[in-house]
Amino acid sequence: MSKNFQKRIYTSIILLLLLILMIADNHIMAFFLMLTGIFSILEFFKITSRIFKKNKIRQLSFNIIFIIYIFCFCTYFLTLSSFLHLKMLIFIILLTCVGSDIGGFVFGKILKGPKLTKISPNKTIAGALGSFVLTCTVM
What we know:
mainly alpha
């Protein structure tokens, strides 16, 4: 088993375990939402500093808009997470993403085939079809 495949499996398992913990308790969900929000903001700061090297005012305005967006998203997400059916929907969406990622990787590595696009050179048509098939199977 390749290192990349092992990393994808471990990440998927950790995400699913975290999601199960978050479904069980809203305090854990709030904690992980705050952590995710902070890491998202820090990553966005890095991106905007590269894009807007010379224009600091534009960089600052984009950063402020992003901070407001993340705050609103986390607030709405936490507010709506008190409903069980929405928690189940979030779980299904995450499970579908995991299935898509693993299906695309496994089918792409096993079947190989022609490349899908020049933008991402490792993506193959077999990987895209495998991603679709495993996502449908998981659903």
